[in-house]
């Protein structure tokens, strides 16, 4: 499916009329009418990166539909047009141009790891985009907004290093995917964090399914003598490498995946994940908070096809969508692209609809990493996650470190 529209009924009254007394008070803005705001969604619905964003659309739909059922943002219903970038940089640019120039969207949501493809174009056009920040472009373009940048270049926290040291890790191996730019950049950040914590990185091993077997990469990990394994790769690839390492007798104190928390992966591969660690920048669902119940209720009502509903991309996309809606509300009765970006950059205490462990100060600019992370460990039966208490909050690493 190359394009889709989330339909929403118009609400019959003008937001401009409600706030200003005149339905013609607002100057024309792309994608904005008296009763709707039209967004675009860049999604890796197909291609190699699609499994990194499983559930993203469900999270987006749930947050938008819940908002529309409450009357929308300042009386305007939110609709969106979807374009699949097929996990391809060039296609990402083609899709972005179609959304902006043909579909005339106001702003974009992004659930893709190839947003770099359209980053320069969207920045030059001044189009706001909020999404899953998995590339360097999110740290250098001020029109690209996220509550969390996974691969920051401006601020790196030592949170992961603190956690690894607390578990006794002294020698680390980093597992990467040579076919993923995000994986390669992530490996560089992890190396910097671990070295700052005094942990020696003894090996960097590529894992490419189809070219390398889990048994082979497992033997390489065991041979390295590492007692910590860190893997900026997909959840399934991490499980392959981790299970291979355990089968080869690797003496790992920590095997940490950067993605994979959630019961979808656990249901398929739980026994192979026993003892593995993951981290999340939001509160894990074992906390059972009121905000989490609101999220689960929204997913059950508006996106029941996602089962289980705790897929990482779904949660993060739900939060990202909430952020964009909050900015849209703060932009006032006559939103423009410029005042939307200004509103988003003026939020000092964004709590991710209550799903984050600590508020994020977006006034400090873009390129921020999550300072506080919650680590979870797969139980010995491979049936659930044990939360490692408390959450770990790190400190900035000086630029010269590493």
Describe this protein's structure.
This protein has helices at 15-20, 56-69, 89-102, 116-125, 159-166, 181-196, 214-224, 235-247, 263-269, 290-302, 312-330, 337-344; strands at residues 3-6, 36-43, 77-84, 107-111, 129-131, 144-145, 171-176, 200-206, 228-231, 254-257, 277-280, 372-378, 385-393. The strands form two sheets. Strands 8-7-9-10-11-12-13 form a seven-stranded mixed beta sheet, sandwiched between helices. Strands 1-3-2-4-5-6 form a six-stranded mixed beta sheet. A hairpin with a 6-residue loop joins strand 12 and strand 13. With 402 residues, the protein is an alpha/beta fold. The chain is built from twelve helices and 13 strands.
Percentage of helical residues?
Answer: 25-40%
Distance between the termini: 44 Å
Average the pLDDT over all residues and give the rounded result. 89
Order of helices and strands: EHEHEHEHEEHEHEHEHEHEHHHEE
Quaternary class: single chain
Strand content: 15-25%
CA-atom Rg in angstroms = 21 Å
Bulk shape: globular
Q: What are the segments in which pLDDT stays under 50 over at least 5 consecutive residues?
A: 1-24
| Major β-sheet strand ordering | 8-7-9-10-11-12-13
The major pleated sheet works out as: 7 strands, mixed
Number of helical elements: 12
- Please identify the structural class as seen in this structure: alpha/beta
Number of strands: 13
């Amino acid at each position: 499916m190359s394009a889709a529209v989330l339909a929403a009924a118009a609400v019959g009254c003008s937001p401009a009329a409600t706030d200003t007394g005149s339905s013609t008070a607002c100057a024309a803005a792309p994608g904005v009418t008296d009763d709707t705001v039209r967004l675009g969604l860049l999604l890796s619905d197909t291609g190699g990166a699609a499994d990194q964003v499983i559930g993203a659309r469900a999270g987006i739909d749930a947050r938008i539909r819940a908002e529309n059922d409450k009357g929308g943002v300042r009386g305007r219903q939110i609709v969106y047009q979807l374009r699949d970038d097929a996990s391809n940089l060039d296609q990402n640019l083609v899709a972005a141009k179609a959304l902006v120039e043909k579909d005339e969207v106001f702003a974009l949501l992004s659930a893709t790891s190839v947003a770099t493809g359209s980053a320069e174009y969207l920045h030059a056009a001044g189009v706001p985009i909020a999404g899953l920040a998995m590339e360097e472009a999110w740290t250098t373009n001020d029109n690209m907004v996220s509550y969390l940048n996974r691969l920051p270049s401006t601020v790196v926290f030592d949170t992961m290093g603190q956690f690894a040291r607390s578990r006794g890790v002294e020698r680390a191996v980093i597992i990467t995917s040579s076919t993923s730019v995000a994986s390669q950049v992530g490996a560089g950040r992890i190396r910097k964090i671990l070295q700052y914590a005094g942990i020696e990185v003894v090996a960097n091993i590529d894992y490419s399914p189809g070219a390398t077997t889990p048994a082979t990469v497992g033997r390489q990990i065991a041979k390295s003598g590492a007692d910590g394994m860190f893997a900026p790769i997909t959840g399934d690839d991490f499980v392959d490498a981790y299970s291979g390492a355990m089968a080869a007798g690797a003496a790992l104190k920590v095997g940490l995946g950067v993605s994979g928390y959630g019961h979808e992966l656990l249901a398929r591969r739980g026994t192979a994940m026993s003892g593995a660690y993951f981290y999340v920048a939001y509160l894990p669902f074992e906390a059972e908070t009121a905000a989490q119940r609101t999220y689960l209720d929204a997913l059950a009502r508006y996106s029941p096809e996602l089962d289980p509903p705790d897929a990482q991309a779904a949660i993060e996309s739900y939060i990202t969508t909430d952020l964009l809606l909050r900015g849209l509300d703060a932009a006032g009765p006559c939103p423009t692209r410029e005042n939307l970006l200004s509103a988003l950059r003026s939020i000092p205490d964004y709590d991710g609809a209550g799903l984050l462990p600590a508020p994020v100060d977006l006034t400090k600019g873009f390129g921020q990493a999550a300072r506080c992370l919650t680590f979870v460990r797969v139980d010995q039966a491979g049936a659930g996650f044990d939360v490692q208490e408390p959450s770990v909050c790190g400190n900035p690493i000086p630029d010269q470190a590493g």
